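Please decode residue identities from the backbone states below.
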């Protein structure tokens, strides 16, 4: 991924050996198979500075409830995790930028 080369390498990709990379460490690249484009990329601001998305929880419960299901077999154990009533909403687009790529 080209973004990873630009933001993690000490030297400028494609440049001379001694040409320092001025953007090293400015951003943290994150790969995801859920992205809809092979060339497009997103930049998100620090969420403490600009809130882009907000998670809401029913009754303030932010952790799942864990239930052990006993079906009578002493050698099997099933576990069910439930997070009731949660949702995500877009709050503001000021802290996000999308580039469709090449």
């Amino acid at each position: 991924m080209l973004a990873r080369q630009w933001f993690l390498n000490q030297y400028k990709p494609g440049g001379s050996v001694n040409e320092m990379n001025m953007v090293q460490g400015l951003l943290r690249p994150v790969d995801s198979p859920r992205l809809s484009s092979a060339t497009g990329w997103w930049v998100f601001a620090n969420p403490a500075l600009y809130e882009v998305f907000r998670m809401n929880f029913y009754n303030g419960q932010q952790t799942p409830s864990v239930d052990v299901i006993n079906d009578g077999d002493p050698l099997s154990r099933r576990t069910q995790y439930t997070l009731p009533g949660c949702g995500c909403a877009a709050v503001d687009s000021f802290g996000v930028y999308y580039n469709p790529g090449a």
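Observation: Residues 27 and 56 are 27 Å apart (CA to CA).
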